Amino acid sequence: MPAKLIRRYIFQVNRYDTNGYLLILNQLERGFKMALTGLEIYKQLPKKNCGECGVPTCLAFAMALAAGKAALDTCPYVTDAARENLESAAAPPIKAIKFGNGSVMGDETVMFRHDKTFYHETTVIIQISDALSDDEVSAKLAEINGLEFDRVGLHYSVEGVAVVNDSGDAARFAKVAAAVAAGTEKSLVLISNDPEALKAAVVPLAARKPLIGEANADNYEAVVTIAKENSVPVILKAEGLDALSDLVEKAVTLGYKEFVLDPGSKTTVQKLADLTQLRRLAIKKKFRTFGYPVIVFTNHDNPLDEIMEASVYVCKYASAIVLKTSAKAHILPLMALKQNLYTDPQKPIQVEEKLYAIGEVNENSPLYLTTNFSLTYYSVEGEVESTKIPSYIIPVNTEGTSVLTAYAAGKYEPELMWETMQKLGVPETLKHRNVIIPGYVAVVTAKLKEISGWNVIVGPRESSGIVAFAKTLK
User: Fold this and answer.
1) Are 295 and 318 in contact (CB under 8 A)?
2) HEC string of 32-68?
3) Residue (of 260, 253, 185) closest to 225 by Cα position
4) Which of 114, 108, 113, 111 is nearest to 91 (CA)?
5) What is the pLDDT along the chain (474 residues), one digit of tens a residue?
6) Which of 140, 201, 264, 445 has the fewest CB atoms within 10 Å of its CB?
7) Cα–Cα separations (whole angstroms), residue 366 to 357, 363, 383, 386, 470
């Protein structure tokens, strides 16, 4: 393609992004080869149209493979030569990198979760400086180990600990890394610009498969070699996408590809721009040089500012974030945001449909009905607990939708309510015949009373009204 046409095409695609424009332009003009098209893949397939891959024809399979919606391994007749040629087309646009205690980064296929879903949550890592005293290291590690949270029925925690070589002393770095490894099961990250310090710390801990770094333009050969020899992933850092692209290409020539990228941006705004460009170039442009997970380090020292900064990176598109603060009050909001973003929007969080006992219930305890959408149930549960009146709650299975949404979709009808009450043995459990329903579905009162024979009490519309409402119950 003539350079003039290349420039015109890229300018149209990236006319609002000069950095992205220049980067792709430079790569194309240097002979960079984009991912294979469906037709190019089809030419290398056996063309049997056997359907054993789950797709009716080889052409359809090739198109699915090019779109990242099929795996080459599902074709039983592909030749070894074709497999080698098609490796890049079959690989996900962002490589999956595994490290530590089951931590996985990358392996994402979309820009927005509503297109499909996000698979791997942003890995949250807390750093420990080796310049701290032994007692301070122990205290910091204990605080990190205590970062465990329960929210809407789910348990989550900080995934990793990063040991940073601020002391500049290789022996001290290795000692603190060993102490941290002995004191936690969390995934490890070892950060130093000194290859000798990294080697001293990594070799004894290679079995823990730590993520190491950072390799830059000056030390990449030594650091990547250490990573390769110990079979651990390595962070490549360069300021700016052009410089990062050059560094990745040089590192690949060393025969290793277990990389995590750090664009080295100085400000939050620039990091956001770089993270977005990296994701877009990998997903939309199939730019394999940037087809790796991305790690960022926060800049702010004030904990609240740091959490606000980290929130930006969770939203767009950090695979891992390294933080300084380790206070529960600071970390909890970030973890809640992460959980919300990485919940599959097509599969809402749900609680089990069963008869929940709140407090020391008996046969005369009130009975509340709600839905099994996790946020709805736990909002109701919290308010019922606050009444100090032992009560039962049934979250009717509405496929994880809230009260109004479920009713509008025909999933919260009186027939289902009564069927659920019977299935869970409510008539045998309770002596009274009263059931409390959400105020938003007061319209079902007469029908539910007719089919069940129970006295139907209309409760408040919002869970926040339950405490005041409970005082009116006899």
Assistant:
1) yes
2) CCCCCCHHHHHCCCCCCCCCCCCCCCHHHHHHHHHCC
3) 253
4) 108
5) 334 433 444 444 444 444 444 444 454 444 344 456 778 888 888 888 998 888 889 888 888 877 767 778 788 888 887 877 776 555 678 888 899 988 888 887 777 766 666 778 889 999 999 999 999 999 999 999 998 887 766 788 889 999 999 999 999 999 999 999 999 999 999 999 999 999 999 999 999 999 998 999 999 999 999 999 999 999 999 998 999 999 999 999 999 999 999 998 889 999 999 999 998 888 888 788 888 999 999 999 999 999 999 999 998 889 999 999 999 999 989 988 888 777 766 677 788 899 999 999 999 999 999 999 988 998 999 999 999 999 999 999 998 889 999 999 899 999 999 999 999 999 999 999 999 999 999 999 999 999 999 999 999 999 999 999 998 886
6) 445
7) 10, 9, 14, 14, 9
Structure tokens at 216: 């830059």
Largest CA distance in the chain: 84
Q: Are 105 and 320 in contact (CB under 8 A)?
A: yes
Cβ proximity of 197 and 171 under 8 Å: no
